[in-house]
Amino acid sequence: MSPARPARRPEPAPVPADRPEAAATPEEAPGPWPRGLSRQATMRISDVLAALRIEFPAVTNSKLRFLEEQGLVDPVRTPAGYRQYSPADLERLRFVLREQRDRYVPLKVIGERLAALDAGTESEPLSPALIVTEDGVPRSGPAEARYTTAALAREAAVDEQIVVDLVQAGVLRPTPSGHLDAWAKDVVLAAAALAEHGIEARHLRPFRSAADRQIDMVETVVAPWRGQSSPSARGRASTVAAEVGELCTRLHTALVRAGVADLAP
């Protein structure tokens, strides 16, 4: 005797054509990035600034408004006209500010990247906020890792005299609080490597002078916006300064590389 066949499930009844279920359900769009975070707008702009300043001490109200004007974030407006942000908006702002700070990416490119993230063609994991000091130096654990000359020498694993010499030569300049800024470590590491080739701190003064001239050039470019009082103008000044500064860096690097290439046998 052949085994009994399992009972056949009844076919579902056809759905009338005039019912919504009859239409094919399109694949849902992935939705704006970041996903999985609340989009309920309950945060005031002051709340967002307080959250962002843990990692970006210099961020301002005008900067956030400028990023809004550029279409990179879209806060909700209350009937009274006040902006309110969601946790997802906050993470989107962190992404934009990190791209500017860490990679000097132009806003146009950041916008294209966000569009790809929104479309789901790219992915980007969420990263926790990096806690920094008021000088922009990352904190280490519960204690603030301030870059005094001694602390910076330990962080860069170099003799403290190298840092002292760079300060005395004017290559490194302490902040008004007496600490060295977030970029000082990169300067110290490069200077320590050059010292192995007999290049001392006093030989690096032309680099400081050249950097100052480039900074003056950037300041001239952004002067029209810095002279305006509108939040949008101040935000644009900050963004243009970062972009032009990065272009100056690339130009300097290309010129040095080209000149060094001619020295090769």
Report on this structure.
This is DNA-binding transcriptional MerR regulator. The model is unreliable at 1-13, 15-27 and 131-145 (pLDDT under 50). This protein folds into 3 domains: 43-119, Multidrug-efflux Transporter Regulator, Chain: A, Domain 2; 146-199, no CATH class; 204-264. The protein is elongated and about 65 Å long. It has a 3-stranded antiparallel sheet. It is mostly helical and 265 residues long. It is built from 9 helices and 3 strands; from the N terminus they run βααββααααααα. A hairpin with a 5-residue loop joins β2 (76-77) and β3.
Integer-rounded radius of gyration = 27 Å
Beta-strand proportion = under 5%
Instruction: Kindly give the count of domains.
Output: 3
Instruction: Please state the overall shape, judged from the principal axes of the Cα atoms.
Output: elongated
- Tell me the number of strands: 3
Please report the number of helical segments: 9
Kindly report how far apart the N and C termini lie. Answer: 91 Å
Q: How do the strands of the widest beta sheet line up side by side?
A: 1-3-2
Mean pLDDT: 80
Taking the sheet with the most strands, its summary is:
3 strands, antiparallel
What structural category do the secondary elements indicate? mainly alpha
Q: Please identify the oligomeric state.
A: single chain
Low-confidence stretches: 1-13, 15-27, 131-145
CATH class of the largest domain: Mainly Alpha
Classify the helix fraction into a percent range.
40-55%
| CATH-defined topology of the largest domain | Multidrug-efflux Transporter Regulator, Chain: A, Domain 2
Organism: Cellulomonas hominis
Protein name: DNA-binding transcriptional MerR regulator
Keywords: DNA-binding
Domain HTH merR-type: 64-116
